[in-house]
Structure formats: structure tokens, C-alpha cells
């Protein structure tokens, strides 16, 4: 009688363990899918790799601030590099104007603008309504903002520029915020590095433009060209698709 009672107990134990194992595996699979969706990494592609080492988002922000708040770098950005970078950015923006990708009336945003050289360059080529965002503000050119969660309403800008895609810990969020705040028909310009890796503050490494084309789900790729932009070698242009009017 004791043996008869023991067998069902053992089976019950194994049944409970099996259920817990199935739940554990299911939970791990969900977490993996969530991570892939959040980072924007295609599991079948190595063309966009998120760098390891960030235990949480606060740790990522602290590391980015280590660069942005570095007094030596900020002095360089506002003195020696100031005019040099403005001149280079002005040439980029002038060419975009000639291609009708940018105009004097374009409401423009520079993403990850630090001390605002790109914003100043936009203003100098005639784009008066221009502002930048960065974790650390630099008035009046740059306001405080996280590019993973832009502090602007939907469909705000005609033009958005960024050369800090490599600093995005969550590329999907980075691009989604651009497409959210960009007006239908608006233009986004990204300067990225494909032939070399970013600095120690970069959060991802990009090896081709294929991941960008997948991330910009609501936009069409306009063109790609080589540039010499302070260590960034490729300019990628997207235009947000216009909404189809239903009758």
C-alpha cells in the first residue's frame, strides 16, 4: 500500500517540476524576443551589434554623461573645434539645400548636438528655426533631451540630423522617435561609420546600412553616399512617407 501511494507522489513531483521548467523556458524566450525588439538587432544578422557591459539604463546614461560633461572636451568643442565644425556642417547643409532636402523654412532638429555646432551651422546657412537636443543643455542652441524619448510632439520637424547613431543603446527607439517627431514628407539625415568602429562611448557598431533600412519602417531610403564627417564615413538620407488620405 505504501509503494502504491509513493508512485503517484513521485509522478506528481515530476509533473510539477516539468510545468515549472516549461514556464521558465517560455519566460526566457519572451525576454530574448523583447531584448531583440528593443535593441533593433536582427537575430539573423551581425550588421548591427549592441555593445555589452551596460547593466541598466542608468549605467548607460552615466557613461554618456562622462563624455558630455568632460570639461576638457567641452572646452575643445567651444573653442578650437567651434568654427572648424561649423564650417564643415555648413557645407553639408548647403549641399542638402541644393538637393531640395533642406530649405530655409525647414523646422529642424539636431539630435545629440552637444554644444550645438550643427545648430549654429543650420542658422548660418539660413535655417532659422533650428534647435538641438542633448543630455546636457547648451542654451540657446541645445535643450535637454534624451534621443530615446524626444521631448517633442508628433509631426513637429521637417528636417532631423544626427551623427550620434552609434551612441544609441536602443536603435529601435532612437529611430522610432525620429519617425514620430518628423512630419510626413520630412527628411532625416544620419552620418554613420561603416568602415571603422566608434569610440569607447559608442553603444553599438554598424556594419552596413541594411539594419537602418529595416529600422526606418515608416520612411523610404532616398540615397547613400560617402562623406568625411569627423570620423563618420557614410551619409544616409531617409524621407518619412506621407500618409495616404482615405476617401
UniProtKB/TrEMBL annotation:
UniProt keyword Membrane present: yes
Pfam families xrefs: Methyltransf_11
Keyword annotations from UniProtKB, A to Z: Membrane, Transmembrane, Transmembrane helix
Chain segments annotated as transmembrane: 6-27
Domain Methyltransferase type: from-to ranges: 109-190
Name of protein: Methyltransferase type 11 domain-containing protein
Species of origin: Hibiscus sabdariffa (roselle)
